[in-house]
Amino acid sequence: MSALVAVALLATACGTPKKELTTGSISSSAASPRAVQTMTEPELRAAASSVGAAYEKNPGDKTNGLNYANLLRMTGKNEQSLAVMQQLAIRFPTDREVLAAYGKAQAAAGQLEQALATIGRAQTPDRPDWRLKSAEGAILDQLGRSAEARQAYRNALDIKPNDPSVLSNLGMSYLLTKDLKTAETYLRSAAAQPGADSGVRQNLALAVGLQGRFDEAERIASAELSPAQAQDNVRYLRAMLAQQNSWKQLASQDTRSPTAQKVN
C-alpha cells in the first residue's frame, strides 16, 4: 500500500521490527527532508533518478552519495543503497556521517549485526551522537533486544531531550512488544514536540488504531494523508487485526505496514 510506505527504523537516526531505518534527511541539493517525506512514489523515483545521475558523474562526492543512497532506500532498493554506501565507506572510512548512513543501509538490507558494528564504529565515547544512539536502538529492536534498544533511546534522549524522532522510536519499541498504552504515551509526546513530522503522527495513528479506536486513528491520519489514504490505512488495520497471529504479522513486516515507521 503506497500510502503506508514511508521510511522507518532510524530518522535522523532511524526503521523493521523490521522497521527500516527512518529516512534521515537528504540535503537541499535534492529537496528538503519534509518535502521528501511527502513525495509520492513516482516523485521519489524521479528524485532518485536525478540524484543518481549526479552521483554517476562524481561518485566521490559525499553529499550526492548520501542523498542517492537515502533515496534508493526510500524506494525499496535496499541492496543498491547498500552498494552505494559500501563505496562511500571505502572513500570515507572514518567519517561519522558516512558510517551512520552505512549502518542504516546495512540494517535495511537485513545485515543487522554488521549494522550494529558499523554504528558502533561511528560513535565516539567522548562525543556521543544522539542520532547514532537512536539508530543503535532501532537496530537492537530489529534484533529483538528491546530492553537494550530502549536504553539506547533513553541515552539519546539524555543528549537530545524530547526529540520527537527518538520519542517515536521509543514508542514504536513498546508497540512491537504489544504494550500499546505505553507506546501511545510516548507517541503522543513525540507528536506534541516542535518539529514532529508526518511519520511521527502516522505512528501515533497506528498505535491508536491497534487499540481498536479506528475513528480516532483515521482523524489523526487524515491530518497528514488524503481522506482516501487514511481510510485505506484503517481498512488495512481492521483486516490485519481480524486475522490470527496479527501481531506476528505486524512484527514480520517492514513497519511500513499501516503507516508504521521508525523515525530516526
TrEMBL record:
Which Gene3D superfamilies does this chain map to? Answer: Tetratricopeptide repeat domain
Q: Which residues form a coiled coil?
A: none
Comp. bias regions, Polar residues: 22-39
Q: What is this protein called?
A: Pilus assembly protein TadD
Species whose genome carries this gene: Xaviernesmea rhizosphaerae
Q: Which InterPro entries match?
A: TPR-like_helical_dom_sf (IPR011990), TPR_rpt (IPR019734), UCP035836 (IPR014596)
Q: Which ranges does the UniProt record give for the TPR repeats?
A: 130-163
* Key words of the record: TPR repeat
Origin superkingdom? Bacteria
Q: Where is this region: Disordered?
A: 19-39
Residue intervals passing through the bilayer: none
Give the classification, highest ranks: Bacteria, Pseudomonadati, Pseudomonadota, Alphaproteobacteria, Hyphomicrobiales
Q: Is Repressor a UniProt keyword of this protein? A: no
